[in-house]
Protein backbone atom coordinates (compact mmCIF):
# COMPACT_ATOMS: atom_id res chain seq x y z
CA UNK A 1 0.00 0.00 0.00
CA UNK A 2 1.54 3.36 -0.97
CA UNK A 3 1.78 6.09 1.67
CA UNK A 4 -1.54 7.92 2.00
CA UNK A 5 -1.81 11.57 1.01
CA UNK A 6 -1.16 14.12 3.75
CA UNK A 7 -3.06 17.25 4.59
CA UNK A 8 -6.59 15.95 4.23
CA UNK A 9 -8.85 14.96 7.11
CA UNK A 10 -8.97 11.34 8.21
CA UNK A 11 -11.32 9.37 10.43
CA UNK A 12 -11.36 5.91 12.00
CA UNK A 13 -12.79 3.91 14.84
CA UNK A 14 -10.01 3.86 17.45
CA UNK A 15 -11.42 1.25 19.80
CA UNK A 16 -11.30 -2.52 19.30
CA UNK A 17 -14.12 -4.23 17.40
CA UNK A 18 -16.84 -5.72 19.55
CA UNK A 19 -19.09 -4.47 22.31
CA UNK A 20 -17.72 -2.11 24.95
CA UNK A 21 -19.02 0.54 27.33
CA UNK A 22 -17.47 3.31 25.27
CA UNK A 23 -16.24 3.49 21.68
CA UNK A 24 -14.08 6.18 20.12
CA UNK A 25 -14.12 7.64 16.62
CA UNK A 26 -11.15 9.83 15.84
CA UNK A 27 -10.84 12.68 13.36
CA UNK A 28 -7.57 14.37 12.42
CA UNK A 29 -6.78 17.06 9.88
CA UNK A 30 -7.64 20.65 9.00
CA UNK A 31 -11.35 19.91 8.42
CA UNK A 32 -11.88 17.95 11.64
CA UNK A 33 -13.97 20.65 13.30
CA UNK A 34 -16.03 21.34 10.18
CA UNK A 35 -16.78 17.63 9.79
CA UNK A 36 -17.49 17.36 13.54
CA UNK A 37 -19.93 20.28 13.37
CA UNK A 38 -22.00 18.47 10.76
CA UNK A 39 -22.65 15.45 12.95
CA UNK A 40 -22.32 16.61 16.55
CA UNK A 41 -24.50 19.15 18.33
CA UNK A 42 -23.16 20.27 21.75
CA UNK A 43 -25.80 20.42 24.47
CA UNK A 44 -24.75 24.00 25.20
CA UNK A 45 -25.87 25.09 21.75
CA UNK A 46 -22.35 26.15 20.70
CA UNK A 47 -21.09 25.14 17.31
CA UNK A 48 -18.24 22.61 17.23
CA UNK A 49 -16.12 24.91 15.05
CA UNK A 50 -16.11 27.50 17.85
CA UNK A 51 -14.87 25.07 20.52
CA UNK A 52 -11.41 25.73 21.95
CA UNK A 53 -8.86 22.99 22.60
CA UNK A 54 -8.94 20.86 25.71
CA UNK A 55 -12.70 20.59 26.16
CA UNK A 56 -14.96 17.65 26.86
CA UNK A 57 -18.37 18.51 25.48
CA UNK A 58 -21.60 16.59 25.98
CA UNK A 59 -24.02 16.49 23.06
CA UNK A 60 -25.88 14.54 20.40
CA UNK A 61 -24.65 12.74 17.32
CA UNK A 62 -27.26 13.26 14.63
CA UNK A 63 -27.86 12.24 11.06
CA UNK A 64 -30.13 15.03 9.87
CA UNK A 65 -33.19 14.77 12.10
CA UNK A 66 -32.28 11.33 13.39
CA UNK A 67 -30.60 10.87 16.77
CA UNK A 68 -27.70 8.44 16.41
CA UNK A 69 -26.36 8.52 19.98
CA UNK A 70 -25.58 10.77 22.90
CA UNK A 71 -21.85 11.29 23.15
CA UNK A 72 -18.86 13.22 24.46
CA UNK A 73 -16.58 15.18 22.19
CA UNK A 74 -12.92 15.79 23.14
CA UNK A 75 -11.20 18.69 21.43
CA UNK A 76 -7.53 19.13 20.49
CA UNK A 77 -6.03 21.89 18.39
CA UNK A 78 -2.86 21.90 16.32
CA UNK A 79 -0.04 21.48 17.33
CA UNK A 80 -1.07 20.09 20.71
CA UNK A 81 -2.56 16.77 19.65
CA UNK A 82 -1.35 13.23 18.99
CA UNK A 83 -0.97 13.90 15.27
CA UNK A 84 0.00 17.54 15.63
CA UNK A 85 -3.15 18.46 13.67
CA UNK A 86 -6.65 19.52 14.71
CA UNK A 87 -8.10 16.41 16.31
CA UNK A 88 -11.55 15.47 17.60
CA UNK A 89 -12.37 12.34 19.53
CA UNK A 90 -15.97 11.31 19.68
CA UNK A 91 -16.83 9.03 22.59
CA UNK A 92 -20.04 7.19 21.85
CA UNK A 93 -21.59 4.10 23.33
CA UNK A 94 -19.32 1.21 22.40
CA UNK A 95 -21.50 -0.94 20.16
CA UNK A 96 -20.54 -1.80 16.60
CA UNK A 97 -23.70 -0.30 15.06
CA UNK A 98 -23.23 3.05 16.82
CA UNK A 99 -19.56 3.26 15.90
CA UNK A 100 -20.11 2.25 12.29
CA UNK A 101 -22.78 4.88 11.90
CA UNK A 102 -20.65 7.59 13.56
CA UNK A 103 -17.74 6.74 11.28
CA UNK A 104 -20.01 6.68 8.24
CA UNK A 105 -21.19 10.20 9.12
CA UNK A 106 -17.58 11.43 9.35
CA UNK A 107 -16.87 9.99 5.91
CA UNK A 108 -20.07 11.38 4.40
CA UNK A 109 -19.30 14.84 5.79
CA UNK A 110 -15.86 15.08 4.24
CA UNK A 111 -13.35 12.89 6.04
CA UNK A 112 -11.42 10.03 4.44
CA UNK A 113 -11.10 6.61 6.06
CA UNK A 114 -7.68 6.43 7.73
CA UNK A 115 -5.22 3.73 6.74
CA UNK A 116 -3.61 1.51 9.37
CA UNK A 117 -1.26 3.54 11.54
CA UNK A 118 -2.04 6.77 9.72
CA UNK A 119 -2.57 8.81 12.90
CA UNK A 120 0.86 7.75 14.15
CA UNK A 121 2.36 8.35 10.70
CA UNK A 122 1.07 11.91 10.90
CA UNK A 123 2.52 12.21 14.41
CA UNK A 124 5.88 11.21 12.94
CA UNK A 125 5.63 13.46 9.88
CA UNK A 126 4.71 16.44 12.06
CA UNK A 127 7.75 15.78 14.27
CA UNK A 128 5.74 14.79 17.36
CA UNK A 129 7.37 11.35 17.45
CA UNK A 130 10.54 9.96 15.92
CA UNK A 131 10.47 6.59 14.16
CA UNK A 132 11.82 4.66 17.13
CA UNK A 133 9.03 6.11 19.26
CA UNK A 134 6.46 5.31 16.58
CA UNK A 135 7.61 1.70 16.66
CA UNK A 136 7.33 1.78 20.45
CA UNK A 137 3.69 2.88 20.07
CA UNK A 138 3.04 -0.22 17.98
CA UNK A 139 4.84 -2.41 20.51
CA UNK A 140 2.89 -0.85 23.35
CA UNK A 141 -0.43 -1.52 21.65
CA UNK A 142 0.61 -5.09 20.90
CA UNK A 143 2.24 -5.80 24.27
CA UNK A 144 0.91 -9.06 25.68
CA UNK A 145 3.07 -9.14 28.77
CA UNK A 146 4.06 -6.65 31.39
CA UNK A 147 7.73 -6.84 30.40
CA UNK A 148 6.85 -6.04 26.78
CA UNK A 149 4.73 -3.15 27.95
CA UNK A 150 7.49 -1.78 30.17
CA UNK A 151 10.09 -1.90 27.42
CA UNK A 152 7.76 -0.28 24.88
CA UNK A 153 6.80 2.45 27.35
CA UNK A 154 10.49 3.23 27.84
CA UNK A 155 10.95 3.37 24.07
CA UNK A 156 8.04 5.77 23.76
CA UNK A 157 9.53 7.94 26.50
CA UNK A 158 12.57 8.50 24.27
CA UNK A 159 14.93 6.39 26.39
CA UNK A 160 15.99 4.43 23.32
CA UNK A 161 16.26 7.57 21.19
CA UNK A 162 18.56 9.06 23.84
CA UNK A 163 20.84 6.03 23.65
CA UNK A 164 20.96 6.37 19.87
CA UNK A 165 21.70 10.08 20.21
CA UNK A 166 24.70 9.31 22.43
CA UNK A 167 26.02 6.95 19.79
CA UNK A 168 25.38 9.51 17.09
CA UNK A 169 27.15 12.30 18.96
CA UNK A 170 30.28 10.16 19.45
CA UNK A 171 30.36 9.28 15.77
CA UNK A 172 29.73 12.88 14.79
CA UNK A 173 32.64 14.02 16.95
CA UNK A 174 35.05 11.61 15.33
CA UNK A 175 33.77 12.50 11.89
CA UNK A 176 34.31 16.18 12.71
CA UNK A 177 37.87 15.47 13.85
CA UNK A 178 38.57 13.66 10.61
CA UNK A 179 37.27 16.57 8.59
CA UNK A 180 39.57 18.83 10.58
CA UNK A 181 42.50 16.59 9.67
CA UNK A 182 41.57 16.85 6.00
CA UNK A 183 41.17 20.63 6.19
CA UNK A 184 44.28 21.32 8.30
CA UNK A 185 46.55 18.36 7.65
CA UNK A 186 49.56 19.97 9.37
CA UNK A 187 47.97 20.47 12.76
CA UNK A 188 47.35 16.78 13.44
CA UNK A 189 44.72 15.35 15.76
CA UNK A 190 45.61 13.12 18.71
CA UNK A 191 44.78 9.48 18.10
CA UNK A 192 42.95 9.13 21.39
CA UNK A 193 40.28 11.53 20.18
CA UNK A 194 39.71 9.28 17.27
CA UNK A 195 39.65 5.85 18.85
CA UNK A 196 37.99 6.44 22.17
CA UNK A 197 34.56 7.74 21.11
CA UNK A 198 34.24 5.05 18.46
CA UNK A 199 35.01 2.31 20.98
CA UNK A 200 32.45 3.82 23.32
CA UNK A 201 29.84 3.93 20.55
CA UNK A 202 30.48 0.29 19.64
CA UNK A 203 30.14 -0.61 23.32
CA UNK A 204 26.75 1.10 23.50
CA UNK A 205 25.62 -0.63 20.32
CA UNK A 206 26.71 -4.03 21.68
CA UNK A 207 24.70 -3.41 24.82
CA UNK A 208 21.60 -2.54 22.81
CA UNK A 209 22.05 -5.48 20.43
CA UNK A 210 22.34 -7.81 23.40
CA UNK A 211 18.79 -6.78 24.38
CA UNK A 212 17.31 -7.71 21.01
CA UNK A 213 16.55 -11.31 21.90
CA UNK A 214 14.92 -10.28 25.15
CA UNK A 215 12.83 -7.76 23.23
CA UNK A 216 11.68 -10.33 20.71
CA UNK A 217 10.73 -12.77 23.45
CA UNK A 218 8.94 -10.17 25.53
CA UNK A 219 6.91 -9.14 22.50
CA UNK A 220 6.23 -12.43 20.80
CA UNK A 221 6.77 -14.90 23.60
CA UNK A 222 9.21 -17.78 23.90
CA UNK A 223 8.86 -21.47 23.17
CA UNK A 224 9.84 -23.70 26.06
CA UNK A 225 10.14 -27.42 25.30
CA UNK A 226 9.87 -30.09 27.96
CA UNK A 227 11.81 -33.13 26.87
CA UNK A 228 13.28 -36.28 28.36
CA UNK A 229 12.79 -40.00 28.61
CA UNK A 230 9.36 -41.55 29.10
CA UNK A 231 8.18 -41.19 32.69
CA UNK A 232 10.75 -38.48 33.46
CA UNK A 233 7.90 -36.31 34.72
CA UNK A 234 7.50 -33.87 31.82
CA UNK A 235 3.72 -33.75 31.84
CA UNK A 236 3.69 -33.52 35.64
CA UNK A 237 6.08 -30.57 35.53
CA UNK A 238 3.98 -28.82 32.89
CA UNK A 239 0.89 -29.23 35.07
CA UNK A 240 2.79 -27.98 38.13
CA UNK A 241 3.97 -24.88 36.26
CA UNK A 242 0.48 -24.22 34.95
CA UNK A 243 -1.23 -24.83 38.27
CA UNK A 244 -3.88 -27.03 36.67
CA UNK A 245 -4.04 -30.42 34.99
CA UNK A 246 -3.49 -29.84 31.32
CA UNK A 247 -1.51 -32.89 30.30
CA UNK A 248 -2.23 -36.54 31.01
CA UNK A 249 0.04 -38.09 33.64
CA UNK A 250 0.49 -41.82 34.28
CA UNK A 251 3.12 -44.27 35.41
CA UNK A 252 2.94 -45.98 32.02
CA UNK A 253 6.00 -44.86 30.02
CA UNK A 254 4.97 -43.35 26.70
CA UNK A 255 1.84 -41.61 27.98
CA UNK A 256 2.39 -38.48 25.91
CA UNK A 257 2.66 -39.47 22.26
CA UNK A 258 1.93 -36.29 20.40
CA UNK A 259 2.91 -32.89 21.73
CA UNK A 260 0.75 -30.30 23.39
CA UNK A 261 1.14 -26.59 23.92
CA UNK A 262 0.01 -24.42 26.80
CA UNK A 263 0.43 -20.68 27.33
CA UNK A 264 2.32 -19.89 30.49
CA UNK A 265 3.42 -16.74 32.27
CA UNK A 266 6.92 -17.13 33.67
CA UNK A 267 7.41 -14.15 35.98
CA UNK A 268 6.05 -11.75 33.37
CA UNK A 269 7.55 -13.46 30.31
CA UNK A 270 4.98 -14.93 27.93
CA UNK A 271 5.90 -18.51 27.17
CA UNK A 272 4.39 -21.33 25.18
CA UNK A 273 5.31 -24.53 27.00
CA UNK A 274 5.42 -27.63 24.80
CA UNK A 275 5.03 -31.04 26.43
CA UNK A 276 6.52 -33.75 24.23
CA UNK A 277 6.62 -37.51 23.89
CA UNK A 278 9.26 -39.28 26.00
CA UNK A 279 12.42 -39.81 23.97
CA UNK A 280 13.49 -43.45 23.61
CA UNK A 281 14.19 -46.06 20.97
CA UNK A 282 10.89 -47.66 20.22
CA UNK A 283 9.50 -50.21 17.78
CA UNK A 284 6.12 -48.47 17.83
CA UNK A 285 5.90 -46.40 14.64
CA UNK A 286 3.51 -43.83 16.10
CA UNK A 287 5.61 -43.36 19.20
CA UNK A 288 8.75 -43.13 17.05
CA UNK A 289 7.34 -40.22 15.10
CA UNK A 290 6.42 -38.59 18.42
CA UNK A 291 10.05 -38.95 19.48
CA UNK A 292 11.29 -37.39 16.23
CA UNK A 293 8.82 -34.56 16.70
CA UNK A 294 10.01 -34.04 20.27
CA UNK A 295 13.59 -33.67 19.08
CA UNK A 296 12.68 -31.17 16.41
CA UNK A 297 10.58 -29.19 18.89
CA UNK A 298 13.63 -29.04 21.16
CA UNK A 299 15.83 -27.88 18.29
CA UNK A 300 13.43 -25.04 17.47
CA UNK A 301 12.66 -23.95 21.02
CA UNK A 302 14.14 -20.87 22.66
CA UNK A 303 14.89 -23.07 25.65
CA UNK A 304 14.51 -26.79 26.38
CA UNK A 305 14.08 -28.29 29.81
CA UNK A 306 15.62 -31.75 29.72
CA UNK A 307 14.16 -33.76 32.58
CA UNK A 308 16.25 -36.51 34.16
CA UNK A 309 14.56 -38.66 36.78
CA UNK A 310 16.79 -38.78 39.87
CA UNK A 311 15.02 -41.87 41.18
CA UNK A 312 16.19 -44.04 38.29
CA UNK A 313 19.76 -44.56 37.09
CA UNK A 314 21.18 -42.32 34.40
CA UNK A 315 21.63 -44.10 31.11
CA UNK A 316 24.01 -43.52 28.21
CA UNK A 317 21.05 -42.21 26.15
CA UNK A 318 20.56 -39.39 28.64
CA UNK A 319 24.13 -38.25 28.14
CA UNK A 320 23.82 -38.72 24.38
CA UNK A 321 20.75 -36.49 24.34
CA UNK A 322 22.54 -33.79 26.33
CA UNK A 323 25.39 -33.91 23.82
CA UNK A 324 22.93 -33.66 20.92
CA UNK A 325 21.33 -30.43 22.10
CA UNK A 326 22.61 -26.87 21.90
CA UNK A 327 23.94 -26.08 25.41
CA UNK A 328 23.00 -22.40 25.01
CA UNK A 329 19.35 -23.39 24.83
CA UNK A 330 19.34 -26.27 27.27
CA UNK A 331 18.52 -26.45 30.96
CA UNK A 332 18.94 -29.83 32.62
CA UNK A 333 16.37 -30.47 35.33
CA UNK A 334 16.67 -33.25 37.91
CA UNK A 335 13.10 -34.37 38.52
CA UNK A 336 11.26 -36.21 41.29
CA UNK A 337 13.64 -34.96 43.97
CA UNK A 338 11.08 -35.94 46.63
CA UNK A 339 12.04 -39.58 45.96
CA UNK A 340 15.37 -41.00 47.07
CA UNK A 341 17.98 -40.18 44.50
CA UNK A 342 20.14 -42.80 42.84
CA UNK A 343 22.41 -40.21 41.26
CA UNK A 344 23.36 -36.62 41.95
CA UNK A 345 24.74 -33.61 40.11
CA UNK A 346 28.27 -34.86 40.73
CA UNK A 347 27.64 -38.14 38.94
CA UNK A 348 28.56 -36.95 35.48
CA UNK A 349 29.36 -33.36 36.19
CA UNK A 350 25.93 -32.37 34.89
CA UNK A 351 24.71 -29.11 36.38
CA UNK A 352 21.06 -29.55 37.23
CA UNK A 353 18.21 -27.78 38.88
CA UNK A 354 16.34 -29.91 41.38
CA UNK A 355 12.59 -29.98 40.96
CA UNK A 356 9.73 -32.00 42.35
CA UNK A 357 6.42 -31.64 40.54
CA UNK A 358 4.76 -33.45 43.42
CA UNK A 359 5.88 -31.19 46.28
CA UNK A 360 6.57 -28.05 44.27
CA UNK A 361 10.16 -27.94 45.52
CA UNK A 362 12.44 -26.03 43.18
CA UNK A 363 9.63 -24.63 41.00
CA UNK A 364 10.30 -21.02 41.98
CA UNK A 365 14.02 -21.34 41.28
CA UNK A 366 13.14 -23.02 37.98
CA UNK A 367 10.89 -20.10 37.02
CA UNK A 368 13.60 -17.59 37.87
CA UNK A 369 16.24 -19.51 35.97
CA UNK A 370 14.02 -19.89 32.91
CA UNK A 371 13.25 -16.19 32.94
CA UNK A 372 16.91 -15.32 33.27
CA UNK A 373 17.94 -17.69 30.49
CA UNK A 374 15.27 -16.25 28.20
CA UNK A 375 15.59 -12.53 28.76
CA UNK A 376 18.63 -12.00 30.95
CA UNK A 377 19.03 -10.58 34.39
CA UNK A 378 15.86 -9.08 35.83
CA UNK A 379 17.65 -6.15 37.43
CA UNK A 380 18.04 -2.66 36.00
CA UNK A 381 15.94 -0.94 33.40
CA UNK A 382 14.63 -3.14 30.67
CA UNK A 383 15.04 -1.17 27.53
CA UNK A 384 14.99 -3.47 24.58
CA UNK A 385 15.42 -2.99 20.90
CA UNK A 386 12.07 -3.29 19.21
CA UNK A 387 12.15 -5.35 16.09
CA UNK A 388 14.21 -6.40 13.13
CA UNK A 389 14.58 -2.93 11.60
CA UNK A 390 16.30 -1.55 14.67
CA UNK A 391 18.52 -4.60 15.04
CA UNK A 392 19.73 -4.66 11.44
CA UNK A 393 20.34 -0.89 11.39
CA UNK A 394 22.49 -1.09 14.51
CA UNK A 395 24.38 -4.09 13.13
CA UNK A 396 25.17 -2.05 10.03
CA UNK A 397 26.36 0.90 12.12
CA UNK A 398 28.49 -1.43 14.23
CA UNK A 399 30.19 -2.86 11.13
CA UNK A 400 30.80 0.64 9.79
CA UNK A 401 32.41 1.75 13.04
CA UNK A 402 34.63 -1.31 13.32
CA UNK A 403 35.76 -0.81 9.73
CA UNK A 404 36.38 2.88 10.36
CA UNK A 405 38.56 2.07 13.37
CA UNK A 406 40.82 -0.05 11.21
CA UNK A 407 40.82 2.07 8.05
CA UNK A 408 43.03 4.94 6.88
CA UNK A 409 41.48 8.37 7.51
CA UNK A 410 39.92 8.98 4.11
CA UNK A 411 38.18 5.60 4.03
CA UNK A 412 37.21 5.89 7.68
CA UNK A 413 35.38 9.11 6.87
CA UNK A 414 33.26 7.28 4.31
CA UNK A 415 32.39 4.57 6.82
CA UNK A 416 31.44 7.17 9.39
CA UNK A 417 29.25 8.93 6.87
CA UNK A 418 27.46 5.62 6.25
CA UNK A 419 27.06 5.08 9.97
CA UNK A 420 25.59 8.54 10.49
CA UNK A 421 23.20 8.05 7.61
CA UNK A 422 21.97 4.72 9.00
CA UNK A 423 21.52 6.24 12.46
CA UNK A 424 19.48 9.08 10.99
CA UNK A 425 17.30 6.57 9.13
CA UNK A 426 16.82 4.62 12.34
CA UNK A 427 15.37 7.54 14.24
CA UNK A 428 13.69 8.84 11.10
CA UNK A 429 15.46 12.18 11.15
CA UNK A 430 17.23 11.67 7.86
CA UNK A 431 15.88 10.93 4.41
CA UNK A 432 13.54 8.03 4.83
CA UNK A 433 12.60 5.79 1.94
CA UNK A 434 8.86 5.67 1.45
CA UNK A 435 9.00 1.86 1.55
CA UNK A 436 10.51 1.99 5.03
CA UNK A 437 7.59 4.05 6.29
CA UNK A 438 5.06 1.82 4.55
CA UNK A 439 6.71 -1.20 6.08
CA UNK A 440 6.60 0.21 9.58
CA UNK A 441 3.08 1.58 9.55
CA UNK A 442 1.33 -1.25 7.73
CA UNK A 443 1.53 -3.30 10.93
CA UNK A 444 -0.53 -0.81 12.92
CA UNK A 445 -4.26 -1.09 13.41
CA UNK A 446 -6.63 1.39 11.83
CA UNK A 447 -7.34 4.21 14.25
CA UNK A 448 -3.85 4.30 15.79
N1 LIG B 1 7.22 -38.81 43.34
C1 LIG B 1 7.12 -38.12 42.22
N2 LIG B 1 6.53 -38.68 41.15
C2 LIG B 1 6.43 -37.96 40.02
C3 LIG B 1 6.93 -36.63 39.92
N3 LIG B 1 6.69 -36.17 38.66
C4 LIG B 1 6.08 -37.18 38.01
N4 LIG B 1 5.92 -38.25 38.81
C5 LIG B 1 5.31 -39.55 38.46
O1 LIG B 1 6.04 -40.11 37.39
C6 LIG B 1 5.16 -40.79 36.47
C7 LIG B 1 5.35 -40.23 35.06
O2 LIG B 1 4.95 -38.87 35.04
P1 LIG B 1 4.57 -38.11 33.71
O3 LIG B 1 4.42 -36.68 34.07
O4 LIG B 1 3.44 -38.78 33.03
O5 LIG B 1 5.88 -38.33 32.90
P2 LIG B 1 6.19 -37.96 31.38
O6 LIG B 1 7.63 -37.57 31.31
O7 LIG B 1 5.21 -36.99 30.86
O8 LIG B 1 6.03 -39.37 30.69
P3 LIG B 1 5.65 -39.71 29.15
O9 LIG B 1 4.49 -38.88 28.75
O10 LIG B 1 5.33 -41.16 29.22
O11 LIG B 1 6.87 -39.46 28.33
C8 LIG B 1 3.76 -40.57 37.02
O12 LIG B 1 3.40 -41.71 37.76
C9 LIG B 1 3.91 -39.37 37.93
O13 LIG B 1 2.98 -39.37 38.99
C10 LIG B 1 7.53 -36.05 41.08
O14 LIG B 1 7.98 -34.92 41.12
N5 LIG B 1 7.60 -36.85 42.19
MG1 LIG C 1 3.87 -37.07 29.35
Labels describing this entry:
Rossmann fold; 7-stranded mixed beta sheet; Four Helix Bundle (Hemerythrin (Met), subunit A); alpha/beta; 13 strands; binds guanosine-5'-triphosphate; single chain; 15 helices; 6-stranded mixed beta sheet; binds magnesium ion; 448 residues; 3 domains; Gyrase A, domain 2
Describe this structure in words.
The protein is α/β, with parallel strands linked by helices and 448 residues long. The protein has three domains: 10-129, Probable tRNA modification gtpase trme, domain 1 (Gyrase A, domain 2, 2-Layer Sandwich); 134-211 and 385-428, tRNA modification GTPase MnmE domain 2 (Four Helix Bundle (Hemerythrin (Met), subunit A), Up-down Bundle), CATH 1.20.120; 218-375, P-loop containing nucleotide triphosphate hydrolases (Rossmann fold, 3-Layer(aba) Sandwich). Helix content is 44%, strand content 18%. It has 15 helices and 13 strands. The protein has helices at residues 32-39, 96-108, 118-125, 131-142, 146-156, 159-183, 191-210, 212-220, 234-242, 285-300, 316-324, 363-375, 388-406, 409-427, 434-441; strands at 10-13, 20-28, 40-42, 56-63, 66-76, 87-94, 112-113, 222-228, 260-266, 269-275, 303-309, 330-335, 353-355. It has a seven-stranded mixed beta sheet. Strands 9-10-8-11-12-13 form a six-stranded mixed beta sheet, sandwiched between helices. Helix 5 crosses helix 8, helix 7 runs antiparallel to helix 13 (388-406) and helix 13 (388-406) runs antiparallel to helix 14. The two termini are 17 Å apart. The mean pLDDT is 90. The structure holds guanosine-5'-triphosphate and magnesium ion. Residues 234-235, 247, 255-256, 275 line the site of magnesium ion (MG).
Amino acid sequence: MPLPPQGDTIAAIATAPGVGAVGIVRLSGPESYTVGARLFAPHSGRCVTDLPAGRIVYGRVTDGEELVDEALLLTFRTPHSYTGEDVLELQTHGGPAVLRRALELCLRHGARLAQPGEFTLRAYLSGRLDLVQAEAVLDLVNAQSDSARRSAALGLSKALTEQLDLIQSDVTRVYGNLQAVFDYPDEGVPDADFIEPLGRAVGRIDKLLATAKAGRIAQRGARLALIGKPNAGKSSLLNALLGYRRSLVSDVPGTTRDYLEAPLDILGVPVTAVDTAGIRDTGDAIEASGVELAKSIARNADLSLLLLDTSTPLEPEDLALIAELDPARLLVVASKTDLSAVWGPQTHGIATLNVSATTGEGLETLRQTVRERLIGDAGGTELWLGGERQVSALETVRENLLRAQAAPDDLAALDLEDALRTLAELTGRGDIAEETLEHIFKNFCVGK
